[in-house]
Amino acid sequence: MSDSMLFLIVLTPFIGAGLIVVTGNRPNLRETISVATGLLLLAEVASLVPDVLAGETPDLLLAIPVPGVPLALQVEPLGLLFALIASSLWIVTTIYAIGYMRGHHEIHQTRFYAFFAIAIGATMGIALAQNLFTLFLFYELLTISTYPLVTHAGTPEARRGGRVYLGVLMGTSMGFLLLAVIWTWHLTGTTGFKAGGILAGQASPLVIGILYGLFVFGIGKAALMPFHRWLPAAMVAPTPVSALLHAVAVVKAGVFAILKVTVYIFGIDLVGGSTASTALLWMAALTIIGASLVALYQDNLKRRLAYSTISQLSYVVLGAVLANAASISGAAVHIATHAVGKITLFFCAGAILVATHKTRVSELDGLGRQMPLTMGAFLIASLSIAGLPPTGGLWGKWYLALGALDAGYGILVGVLMLSTLLNIAYLLPIPLRAFFGQSPKTTVQFNEAPLPCLVAIGITTAACVTLFFFPGPVYQLAGMLIP
User: Fold this and answer.
1) Residues 6 or more apart whose Cβ sits within 8 Å of residue 25
2) Which residues contact 90 (CB under 8 A, 6 or more apart)?
């Protein structure tokens, strides 16, 4: 039963996309189908939890298009965690999108919901990929299916942003990632994910280092500098798409793939302490600090959040490259806690846009007194991104710091601390000026965003706090990656 469930999990969003297209001229039914598909998908993913916690790894062979290179699915703890995050946040994002898309009078809403569902289907394929070949196919499908979402507005600016998005992501995957997959197959005769990795003893340290670099930079969705420009460029998309990019699917697919390749292709013993890993550690540290400094000077709210995401993604890269039990667990936990924190911030940014048409931080003075729910949620999510109690964002940073100490890189704890201070510097002034700033004398009275937006914001804000007090289920799955 669990084996066949893997196929249903990947198939369900695609069926939902078809039904959305068929019912496109009946908005209420179309959106009901979108939410119902999300609920069904979450139930299907959740049904795998008992098997995975019992130590099982159900798998399913779909096809063998090339001898020795199967198209196959398998669920393991990291993939299950990612699938749970994506499937649950899809429901919340769909609820939010109903209020946003209608409130903002967006065009082509049927196309939006359909491609959103296809993107989630691709995400499920990435989460459940049994090997590099399957991962690569669904990774490319995710890029292609999100391109119409990025260019949704159809304006020259949207098309330019879409070209950068597609160019960087396809360029890195075809230029680096595909080469890494083929090279791995040549060295080992397989592309399958295996506990402890498949590359030990298969090549020299130099080759292993080059190969790992190809994977890390080839997975452009992780937005490691200098391959990060696609992320700010994609901010021309509607806010629900930004939430998809930053929290539900795209960037999380990137850092998930790096973490999975580290654990199941290389193995932590092969990665830890190598010359290549040391160089990548400092590249990740540079991205953490550099992107935060850029965020400080962004007046456009979504661009500030985009550079924040670039910085936060490199926490996961850092944890992967440190390659010990604490850092790997911290990286996996951070995927979950960052998802709920960042999606809340983007939901709030979209609510501000729908209610006030404001997009700049400098325009938000006094807004908290008119939109207290939205700006209160922004404050809580900001605390979570900064890693401050009582929010779940604390735990990922905590285990990453322990991992840095275990690996003998005390200076990286300083990087994490400096990053926290920068997070505070570019995020907390936003709600503070909203609540305590002087409103313009000609202030127009605004109301909160539509109810579906507020419901979604309330759910994800509650999740930010809940993960502080009850991180156990997330950490249980994360802790199973390295026995």
Assistant:
1) none
2) 38, 41, 42, 116, 120, 248
Say how far apart CA 368 and CA 197 lie, in whole Å: 51
CB 431 within 8 A of CB 379: yes
What is the C-alpha to C-alpha distance for residues 67 and 228, in angstroms, rounded to an integer? 36
Mean pLDDT by 10 residues, the chain (483 residues): 85 95 89 94 95 90 87 94 94 88 76 91 96 95 90 81 88 92 92 89 86 91 82 78 74 92 90 75 91 93 90 91 91 93 92 86 88 94 94 94 90 94 95 84 70 91 95 90 79
282/286 Cα distance (integer angstroms) = 6
All structural domains of the chain with their residue ranges: 1-268, 272-483
In order of 166, 333, 409, the CA distances from 413 in angstroms are 35, 17, 7
Paired tokens of 129: 């990929």
CA–CA separation, 161 vs 236, rounded Å?
A: 7
Q: Are 371 and 319 in contact (CB under 8 A)?
A: no
pLDDT tens-digit profile of 127-156? 999 999 999 999 999 999 988 988 877 788
Q: What pTM, to 2 d.p., does this model score?
A: 0.94
Q: Dihedrals φ, ψ of 287, to 5°? A: -65, -40
175's tokens: 């230029």
pLDDT digits (tens, 9 = 90+) for 55-68: 889 899 998 888 88
Which neighbouring-strand residues pair with 155?
A: none
| Paired strand residues for 66 | 69
Query: How far is 198 from 215, CA to CA, in rounded Å?
Result: 15
